[in-house]
Design a protein that fits this description.
There is one protein chain. It is built from 1 helix and 28 strands. By secondary structure, the protein is mainly beta. It is globular, with a radius of gyration of 24 Å.
């Protein structure tokens, strides 16, 4: 009887050990796949990616508001950037070699460099496709005095007014598959609310053009000249009923309805550039470069609500994914300002050297270069 009891206990022990070993083996098999699939989010608050024109891309942990790493884009002159919807890839326009660098966010390594055309600037991602604007005829410069031609600018140094191309990149294939012809010096890029149209600003001929996103067909051209020259930023409202374009040489926002008819203008401080709505569509934010202000307007009445003093050459900004803060890249101050989105006050700054240009986050948030999903 003792032997029988001992045998039963032995069999039960062996079964238990086999079960434990089986569970451990399953867990061991699952872990590497989970690690490989995870994008770099640093912490629950997500990350910000900041391009720097004289270096690479800085990664900011949005919990600590500290730079945690710097990504080498393997090219010179990073400017526009965008994150894929799953956060696994970062697409960065690199001016000097006329390409984009595609970066694996989990490893921080460049996995592909794709030629797109001369002087690429803005990058927007929709699904598996990236749309990249270029400025082959860029001149730039400060507002001209009466009777004078615009002066050249250090940031833009090309010659003739050549129609620009919006490169369309298939991120799955890792190659440019077609081009959409814009105006000379294409700048800002926006998608219509239904995703069927591409809206771009063209600095050199003072137009906003609307294109069929599938065929590239030009659907409409809106001249900005009577309101102000050099359109830069372009943004659609969260409800899809309004489009806003900043007019850098007009010190205005041009307001268009959903059919791209101009309905009014709004005065801004000197040289407005980056523009965005908040996530609820209640407020409009505009970065004014020379005035060194982030201006805030009511999205319905267009009444100015607040002006936040900023720094030098602050062009682009993004909300954090929780909408509590705004990150503003100030190129000639080597800083990213952290602004409380409710109090509308600068609360801190993150040192980012080498001319910070643009900023986007993952998870995606509203900003001058991006739109929350």
């Amino acid at each position: 009887m003792l032997n029988s009891s001992f045998a039963r206990r032995t069999r039960m022990s062996l079964l238990l050990l086999a079960l434990i070993a089986s569970v451990a083996a399953c867990n061991k098999q699952e872990e590497p796949a989970a690690e490989a699939a995870a994008p770099a989010t640093e912490a629950a608050g997500g990350v910000a990616y900041v391009s720097t024109q004289d270096a690479g891309v800085n990664v900011i942990d949005l919990v600590t508001m500290q730079v945690t790493k710097q990504l080498d884009v393997k090219a010179q002159g990073p400017r526009g950037l965008a994150v894929t919807d799953d956060g696994k890839q970062l697409v960065v326009a690199t001016r000097e070699n006329g390409s984009v660098s595609v970066i694996d966010t989990a490893t921080g390594e460049v996995v592909k460099q794709i030629e797109v055309g001369k002087n690429p600037e803005f990058v927007r991602v929709s699904g598996n496709f990236a749309f990249v604007s270029s400025e082959p005829s860029a001149k730039g410069g400060p507002p001209p005095k009466p009777g004078e031609k615009p002066a050249e600018d250090d940031d833009d140094d090309d010659e003739e007014k050549i129609p620009a191309k919006i490169a369309v990149i298939d991120l799955t294939k890792g190659e440019k598959i077609r081009e959409i012809t814009g105006g000379p010096e294409t700048e800002g890029v926006e998608f219509s609310a239904d995703g069927k149209q591409l809206v771009i600003t063209n600095e050199a001929d003072n137009t906003v053009t609307v294109h069929n996103i599938e065929t590239g067909e030009l659907l409409k051209t809106v001249s900005t000249h009577e309101y102000g020259d050099r359109p830069r930023g372009i943004k659609v409202s969260p409800d899809g009923n309004t489009y806003l374009a900043t007019l850098e040489f007009g010190n205005k926002i041009m307001v268009m309805d959903k059919d791209f008819n101009v309905v009014r203008t709004v005065d801004t401080a000197e040289t407005p550039y980056g523009i965005a709505y908040d996530s609820k569509g209640e407020r409009i934010f505009v970065a004014t470069n020379k005035a060194k202000l982030l201006q805030v307007f009511d999205a319905k009445s267009f009444e100015k609500l607040k002006e936040v003093p900023t720094a030098n050459r602050c062009w682009h900004f993004s909300f954090t994914p929780d909408n509590k803060n705004i990150l503003l890249a100030c190129g000639k101050s080597d800083a990213v300002l952290v602004i409380d989105a409710d109090k509308l006050e600068v609360t801190s700054q993150v040192e980012v050297k080498n001319m910070p240009w643009g900023v986007v986050t993952f998870p995606k948030a509203m900003g001058s270069l991006e739109r929350a999903k």
